[in-house]
Amino acid sequence: MKRAREVIITVIGFKKEIEDSDISKLPFLQVMLKEALLLHPPAPFLLPHKVKVSTEINGYMVPKNAQVLVNVWAIG
Prior knowledge:
GO terms for molecular function: heme binding; iron ion binding; monooxygenase activity; oxidoreductase activity, acting on paired donors, with incorporation or reduction of molecular oxygen. By secondary structure, the chain is an alpha+beta fold. The protein folds into two domains: 2-39, no CATH class; 43-76, no CATH class. It has helices at 2-11, 27-39, 72-75; strands spanning 49-50, 55-57, 60-62, 67-68. The strands form two sheets. It has a two-stranded antiparallel sheet with strand order 1-4. The model has no long low-confidence stretch (mean pLDDT 87).
């Protein structure tokens, strides 16, 4: 957070609020937000996926064309 504040003060300054157009000037902030979303995704599941080939995972058979939901909260 200290580094992020320093970058914002250096690039934007104290007088104005951050606007959408300023985001491109703040790559460190972009990286911080991406990392935060990786660690704490905003939604529990990814979009549904369809299995292309029948496969076995941990002893469970997953048939071809089955719909699979990936729980990203459990992965995190």
